[in-house]
Structure formats: C-alpha cells, structure tokens
Amino acid sequence: MQSAAALSTHPIASHATGDVIADILDLGRPSPDLAIVFATSAFSGASEDILGAIDVLLNPKKLLFVSSSGVIGAGSEVDGNAALSLWSYWSETLEDDVAFVGLDEGLAGVDYLSTRQLATAQTVIVLADPSVPMVTQTIDSLCELRTNKVISGGLLSGSNGTPAIQDSTGRSFGCVAVAFQTTAAEAMLAHGSAPLAGPMTITSSTGAMVCELDGAPALDVAYEVLHQADLEDRGSAAQNLALAVLDPETVMIIDVHEVLGADRETGALAVAASLPQGTIVAFHRKDSPGSISGLNEAFVGSRSSGALIFTCSLLDPEADNEGVSDLGSLTESLGTASYAGVHVSTVIGTGSSGPGLSAAPLSAVIFGRRHH
C-alpha cells in the first residue's frame, strides 16, 4: 500500500481544503482508495463543503471527515488552532479494500456481512464520539470480536464544539469502524514511561503481588533500581515507579502497570495488574500527564508505508505554546512523513490483557509493518 499526508493551517476552510488537495494532486497518483480528513473543531461547521471539494477533485473511493481538538499530519501537530490534515491511502490488493461500518447502535445493530468484515479484516480503526450511549460497551464487544487482530483508534476529544464524524454521502456517525480487508499493519501503544532497569523475570507472584524478580525479593530489587537512579530523579522515580511487561521474543513493551505499594514483611510489590510467574518485565518511571517519554523508541523499526496516530497528549508540548509543532524526530523514527492522526480523550489498542480502551496516552497503526 501507499499513503500520503498533507496539512494546512489556513484559517479559512475553503483555502485550507484547497491547500491539502493541491498537495495530494501534486503527487500525480490516481484517485485514492481512502481519504480521511482530520479537522480541528474550528472547521466542524464546514464539513459538507470540505467533503464536497475533496470528493470532486480527488474522487476517493471512500471519504471520511473527523473533527476533534487537535490534528497531526505531514510531520506537524496542531492543537486548538484551525487546521486540516488529509491522509490518503492507495491499496495494492483489492478494489474494495476499505469499508465503513457504523456502530451507533452497537454490534447488535450490524448486519451479518458487516460483522464478518469487522471480524476478518486485517486492520480496523475505530473512531467515536464519547457521548454516544453505550459506546464503551460497543468498543469492548468489537475488541472481543477482534482478539489477536489489529485494532486501534480512540474516543474523540472536543474543544469549542463536539466531535464530528461524517462520510461523503452526508451520513453522520457517532461511532464508526474503518475496516482494511487485506492491508496488514502493526498496532502499538506508547505508554508515557521511561526505562530504569531490566529486563528481568517474575519468578514468584500471587495475583497482583509480585513477590520475586530473578529469584530475589521484588522490593529489594526495586530499592536497588532506585538507588542506581540519579539522586535528583530518585524521588520522582519512586513516586512514579511502574513495571513494563515485555514481549519475550522482541523485548518490546506490551503494557505498563503502576507499582501501587509494597509489603515490607514479605518483600512483595503491589502492581496494578495480575502478572503471572514467568512474565518478562522492566522497571519504568511513568511520566506526568501530557508527556510521552520514549515516543521515538516506541515507533522505531523497519521503514513504514505510513501511519495513523491517536494521542491523548501532545506529541510535542511546543504545540500548546505555538499552536503548530514540527514532529521531525517522529518522522525519522517512522521513516516517512506520510502519517496523520487526531487528538482523542481515550485510546484503543492492544495491551497485555488484550485489545480494548487503554490508559496509555497514544495508540497507532503503522502500515507496512507486520503485526507481531
């Protein structure tokens, strides 16, 4: 597959739309199989005009408009200010590779064919207005349907207006799934934490109590990890201590769970999850909200064909001060500027307990990389 992203910060909707269309047309490619317009709330009222212009000039087979509080596109991030981000996708396999499935009435309101599309698709992106009744239950049911398969997205966030989702036919969604039938991707979460020590193996645990790490009392190991931290960071590390669950083959982070306390008598650590014996973990320091540590490390890998990113936190805090921020370091990690996305209130992704709504600050789908 191929993808391309364009972004405009022109404050007039018609001019911004023209800017992003021109950038895609300049590539000289045929009509895309899918185009997703991510808009800040300033352009919510112009959705029909924006969709109409893109439909006529780019003629994508599928077209979706999504508005939220902030957007990402073409290596930049915009928070609050007027902006349009256009992500275009070309499939290399089937003519009808992408389907939109409305989930406003939950999975029970979806016909058999659409349910099968959701179950068998290689990749599914879910976007939803958090005010839609029973939306969390709908997402939970969809994630159960897609256990061990790629799923990502989020509950949209609104500023100066409610989130909006609409396609080129004028149909509005409270919750929609974008199903890619044949295009495989890697789904990942970034957890907003920085490594302190590890990897190590849980050699004894009881429920949410981690008793031993590499055969030593877990509390003793934690003390040693904190002792080795820089003195000025030691207090912060102790207050924000967490255990990251690692994939035993790739040693990549699957999930991060806070350390809630300790039992001095037994030397066990209380963790915000049940971690069985044999789990590979590392000590991490959780960052404060609004910061995503280790973001570039999380994204690094083989060259991608593009990505869709859903984040609860600013990828670059400078966007909060300046309105627009350059994500050059992220572009280096992904190996492409063909990524786009939107700010959300809660992300959807796959952690150690399976897919679902997550406390992680960022979820992404990276195309051109296989899910592992």
Which tags fit this structure?
single chain, 372 residues, alpha+beta, Elongation Factor Tu (Ef-tu), domain 3, 2 domains, twelve-stranded mixed β-sheet, six-stranded antiparallel barrel, 9 helices, 24 strands, 22% helix, 41% strand, FIST_C, FIST_domain_N
Helix/strand layout:
Elements: E1 2-8, H1 13-25, E2 34-40, H2 47-57, E3 62-68, E4 70-73, E5 76-79, E6 84-90, E7 98-102, H3 112-120, E8 123-128, H4 135-145, E9 150-156, E10 164-167, E11 175-180, E12 185-190, E13 193-206, E14 209-213, E15 216-217, H5 218-228, H6 231-239, E16 241-246, E17 253-263, E18 268-271, E19 280-286, H7 295-299, E20 306-311, H8 318-322, E21 324-326, H9 328-334, E22 339-351, E23 354-358, E24 362-367
Parallel strand pairs: 2-3, 8-9, 20-22
Antiparallel strand pairs: 1-6, 2-6, 3-10, 4-5, 4-22, 5-21, 7-11, 8-11, 9-22, 12-24, 13-14, 13-19, 14-15, 14-18, 16-17, 16-19, 17-18, 20-24, 22-23
What kind of sheet is the major sheet? 12 strands, mixed
- The residue-averaged pLDDT reads 89
Count of alpha/pi helices: 9
Segments where pLDDT lies below 50 for 5+ residues?
Answer: none
The count of DSSP E runs of length 2 or more, i.e. the number of strands, is 24
